[in-house]
Specification:
16 strands, alpha/beta
Amino acid sequence: MSRWEAVDGSFRDPSGFVFTRDGTLYRQVNTGFRPTFEAFLSSGLYDELARDGLLVPHTDAGLEYAATADAFQVLRPDRIPFVSYPYEWSFGELRDAALLTLELQQRALARDFVLRDASAYNVQFRDGRPIFIDTLSFEPRVEGTPWIAYGQFCEHFLVPLALMSLSDIRCSTLLRSHLDGVPLDLGSRLLPRTSYARLGMLLHVHLHAKAQSRYAGASVSAKGRGRTMSRNAVSGLVASLRAAVEGLSWKPAGTVWADYATDNSYTSSAARSKRDTVTQYLRPLGASTAWDLGANTGDYSRAAREVVPQVVSFDLDPAAVERNYRRVRDQSETGILPLVLDLANPSPAQGWAHRERLSLEQRGPADVVLALALVHHLAIGRNLPLPRIADFFARLCRSLVIEFVPKEDSQVQRLLQNRPDIFPDYTREGFERAFGARFRIDSVRPVEDSGRQLYLMTACAPDGRSPT
């Protein structure tokens, strides 16, 4: 049998781990977790959660697929089309992931089980909805014990949501530097004083942080003294957390590019011409995955979705991504995943040995990348040379649909308004020269009623050889 390869994001749990063979995803359940896993299956909780689309379903693969001799069972879970991380989610995505986690805990309690961890990394998004992916996170409840994952839930979900809602939406970036969740004491200090008037914030952030600090140096016996909780008490705690999460909101407005989709230089005929050309370029490619870089609220992501099954819709503006996600969720759209990403500073490889959380590039290549009305923001807005942009894009995709916006365009003039023009190579000729070194240019079409051009390109090999 072929060699197995571990998925590095799952190595911390001694009960089992995720691995691949020949591109197929498996989850091994180790022998030591056998009684707990058998109890979970026999309780009916797995069947309920999988049936209702809350937990990723699996089939039994058979022990012949085991990675190590310690295997009790090998599962073949449904694969998530694109793995994303909490620091890439919009406010609404993080909030919905939090509510899913609490829903799972309540349903588990009803069957006398609990979630033994509440990591945001146990949630992914599929078809516009959050879904839990860690089948081994459930264990029988022990009478009298508190919810052991309470602190983790607060740091992974409640604290960042509160900061995004009550302080500044840009506090979401704290999740990128705090992979184990935003510390309670930090969240308590950063939240405005008015948050003390909110019962949920007072109990679960401010007083929780003080209690954590008070017991930091205490003995294990002192920490556990007086903390017995009945099932009803744990259920009440979860209900209180749900109320705290549901009480947080954010209006997606006030950012630089939030209204770009309705405030740009396109006439209606230009927008129609652009959309038609994009779908015409995509249709014969037979692509399974598309990444729309600089997607704003996702109009062209939806054009791509007409011919590509899975589209990841990236933008750096949190308001634009939030609007995109709300549209996906409210209209039950499938195959579109909106994410927050600054392409000039994309998600890096992070975690232990730089391998737990994958970089954007490691999660590719996509079959096709859309880079529409984007290059001028990178080349002029962020001072990135065209050859470097071309090189990075060539590593992200096999095919590229890209728009060149000339300097005469009002949107480029907007970028140049308060700065000197130090970009002599930003011309159509310079663009084609830079991208022609890393791509084969297959087609060029003008966008009607504009000076813009749409290109279809195919990535060359790293040594510069043209694809066959």
